[in-house]
Amino acid sequence: MTAPMAATAMSPRTVVGGKALPLAVGAVILLLPFGDYSVPVIGLRLSYVAMAVPAALAVRAIVAGRRLPASLILLGAGLGMVGGVVSAAAGVAPDRSVPLVVISAITLGFATAVVFAYRPGLEVGALDLLVVVGGVVAGTALASAGSIQAAEAGSVVNGRLTGPFSQPNELGVFCAALLPIAVACLVSTASWRRGVLLGIATGCLAAACVMSMSRGSWIGGTAALICLAVCEPATRRALGAVGLVLLGTCLAALMVPADVPILGVLGSRIRSLGDPAGNQYDDRPLIWAEALRQGAEHPWLGVGPGAFQNAASTSASAVSADPADHAHNLVLTTLADRGVIGVALGVLVVTGVVVAARRQLLAVPRPGTGDHVFRVRSMAVVAALTAVVVHGSFDMPLRNPIVAALVWTLLGLAMVAETTGPPAPRREPVDRPRVRPSSDSKVVQRW
To answer: Which of 30, 291, 317, 330 could, after both became Cys, cross-link 336 (CB 3.0–4.6 A)?
Structure first.
């Protein structure tokens, strides 16, 4: 075997089976509706088990010589996993922390696998598939809708939509994150059949987000759509139509009495945005204060991943009688679990997403080409992560396996956008007229 043939045979792409990584990533997306089912014997949820397969393929590719991308997102997430190991070892409940550390290793490996699996055009097929599968999840949730009733002046809603999730806020952030991607896929698709399918999925996602009655998801989704409209002009006309429909729905909901089914409940929920403390059963201010207390007692490494409830059960806690699983806030949960170091590494991940957005904004793709589609969909991924971060100001949904699989898929695609720009326009060859050399030029050539 010659040297070039040996190099080809032992390339990282050949080692992982060529198409194995894209297929494994696609399988994770297809299994999203069933991601919260527990796998017997293993003890993990199906989403994490599915993500472990491409994660293992990514590790195999690295061993075979595949280089890691120069990504701030990957650097922050990788150091965050290492910090999680240290926090778990020094924390107050290592038995609760270890499973989360294992999950963080799986999700990090999966995001790396998304980068390794990327081929030109993957941002089309993968995101279309993601939107369609998300539409199936939303449609299933809508099909199971029952009677919805408002209480406490809209601060409490009974019968909220949950779908395959454990609580409505997780369904809400799942749909809110996929909405900007759905709009970007609609405006950049070249097939009317795909357009019809994506349009149905988009409608289901928007309806399920509204019916989840998750105010944090509404705010996060709105921020994501505004982000996409500001950053990507190609989506503004479609987003303007979406905005008019949502504005009309909100105005109609605010004008009808509160006892009107659905619209009346929606209006009560919208009015409750002005009174965040209206729910007498919501102890979030106390929970947030408890997170700050834990952060002050364990400033650098925190109490350990997932150990918030254990640390909140002590007599020094104001919520010891009924401690929460987490701090209902992304930053405060990270502060309590992993300390200031964990928060700083989270900021590094966010910085990487900003770098990805800047890279795509500075690119000048040609309209109607593949590089234009790459930019539109990359900006949609950034907008989707914006929805997750904004919603994280009100809740901590990232421990749900379906939401986690979605977010780490988006982070992998954000790493692609951070490290892979649209191809530069090709320069067409210019035909120059041939000029016969004169007798003087022949003399020059001789010299």
So the answer is: 291
